[in-house]
């Protein structure tokens, strides 16, 4: 029974429906990296785009010309072929000089000169190759500068806003806004009292006002670890799958985390004839054996007043206070203290008007707190 009560209490806490907002997963204001005049805008609001797709293009006549020149330089290999041919000729001259030196037809100086010419020819070949590599890098640089004149989509999504049109000058301002709505992002504000009860990966139910999307399932992907002291709340982010972009973004919704509660533990089966123990409610009175007024220690006079009579046949006058204390033995300890303080209050308030008799004038057989 205790497990069921705690489970119902936890369910009532989690069943609280909180407001949320369905937003795009990512939103980007896309612009150009360079300054120029917008030559062409290729998309309209509502168009679906993919990552890397060209959305707009700036005027780039100069950049295109630079790319053409760099491409021609990178492909020119005449200088390299000339250097290779000169190196081959120098190598053959060196070989002939060595053969003539063996036959003693030339001197050593002629061989050294042929060897130097061959080494110079080899360096010219290396220089031509390096020049060709530099030309290729310049071509890639010009192509990159030309690519900066194009405005491309950073991710798959949909165009939700168009800021510019053809012919306008762009100075690093955004041209279009692109949003990714598959999946969607749900932002919820949760009271601080529920901190610790929501975990990563937990599944929640998202409800909207649209009839076709009344109940949706979302998964918790982010739980803030810092509580906002102003609103005494924290934020929770959920991801909502949106295949084919069917669910629109910007909806106000309600999130319910009760669907992620674990099922209640089943109670142990009872055998036939077994007595199932039940827990008494809090308002029930405890057994009489436990209701002893000894828990509250009254003053000595009160103890004497509520002491059991030794002679049942002896008639003694009973004061109202002793009657109350005897009756209060059937009530809880809290009621006993309350009655005792209540009975003392009128006597304290009237102490200035009543005269307290001396002990010698009181009857020893009567209770000390009895009133005449």
Strand order of the biggest β-sheet:
1-8-11-10-9-12
Instruction: Provide the gyration radius in Å.
Output: 49 Å
Tell me the series of helices and strands, N- to C-terminal.
HEEEEHHHEEEEEEEEHHH
Number of helices: 7
Instruction: Quote the distance from N terminus to C terminus.
Output: 55 Å
Give the overall pLDDT as a whole number: 75
Outline the biggest β-sheet.
6 strands, antiparallel, barrel
Element layout with pairings:
Elements: H1 2-14, E1 18-31, E2 35-41, E3 48-49, E4 54-58, H2 61-75, H3 78-102, H4 108-147, E5 150-152, E6 157-162, E7 169-171, E8 174-191, E9 203-208, E10 215-223, E11 233-240, E12 252-256, H5 300-305, H6 320-327, H7 333-349
Antiparallel strand pairs: 1-8, 1-12, 2-4, 2-7, 3-6, 4-5, 6-8, 8-11, 9-10, 9-12, 10-11
Helix pairs in contact: 2-4, 3-4
Brief rundown of the structure:
The chain has 372 residues and is an alpha+beta fold.
Commentary on this structure:
The chain has about 375 residues and is α+β, with helices and mostly antiparallel strands. It is about 35% helix and about 25% strand. It is built from seven helices and twelve strands. It has helices at about 1-15, 60-75, 80-100, 110-145, 300-305, 320-325, 335-350, and strands at about 20-30, 35-40, 50, 55-60, 150, 155-160, 170, 175-190, 205-210, 215-225, 235-240, 250-255. The strands form two sheets. The protein has a six-stranded antiparallel beta barrel with strand order 1-8-11-10-9-12. Residues about 1-15, about 260-315 and about 350-370 have low confidence and may be disordered.
């Amino acid at each position: 029974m205790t497990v069921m009560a705690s489970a119902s209490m936890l369910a009532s806490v989690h069943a609280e429906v909180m407001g949320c907002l369905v937003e795009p997963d990512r939103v980007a204001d896309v612009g150009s990296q360079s300054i120029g005049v917008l030559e062409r805008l290729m998309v309209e609001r509502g168009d679906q785009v993919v990552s890397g797709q060209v959305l707009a293009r700036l005027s780039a006549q100069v950049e295109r010309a630079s790319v053409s020149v760099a491409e021609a330089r990178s492909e020119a290999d005449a200088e390299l072929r000339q250097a290779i041919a000169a190196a081959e000729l120098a190598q053959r001259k060196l070989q002939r000089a060595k053969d003539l030196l063996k036959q003693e037809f030339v001197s050593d100086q002629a061989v050294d000169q042929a060897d130097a010419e061959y080494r110079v020819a080899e360096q010219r070949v290396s220089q031509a190759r390096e020049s060709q590599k530099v030309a290729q890098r310049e071509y890639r640089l010009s192509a990159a500068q030309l690519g900066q004149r194009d405005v491309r989509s950073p991710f798959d999504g949909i165009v939700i806003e168009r800021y510019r049109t053809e012919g306008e000058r762009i100075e690093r301002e955004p041209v279009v806004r692109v949003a990714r709505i598959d999946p969607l992002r749900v932002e919820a504000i949760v009271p601080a009292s529920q901190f610790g009860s929501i975990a990563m990966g937990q599944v929640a139910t998202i409800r909207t006002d649209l009839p076709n999307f009344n109940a949706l399932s979302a998964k918790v992907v982010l739980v803030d670890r810092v509580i906002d002291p102003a609103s005494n709340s924290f934020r929770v982010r959920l991801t909502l799958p949106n295949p084919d972009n069917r669910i629109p973004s910007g909806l106000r919704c309600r999130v319910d985390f009760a669907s992620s509660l674990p099922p209640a533990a089943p109670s142990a089966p009872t055998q036939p004839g077994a007595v199932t123990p039940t827990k008494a409610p809090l308002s029930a009175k405890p057994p009489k054996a436990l209701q002893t007024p000894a828990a509250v220690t009254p003053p000595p006079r009160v103890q004497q007043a509520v002491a059991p009579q030794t002679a049942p046949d002896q008639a003694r006058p009973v004061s109202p206070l002793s009657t109350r204390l005897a009756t209060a033995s059937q009530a809880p300890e809290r009621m006993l203290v309350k009655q005792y303080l209540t009975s003392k209050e009128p006597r304290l308030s009237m102490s200035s008007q009543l005269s307290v008799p001396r002990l010698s004038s009181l009857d020893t057989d009567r209770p000390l707190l009895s009133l005449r």
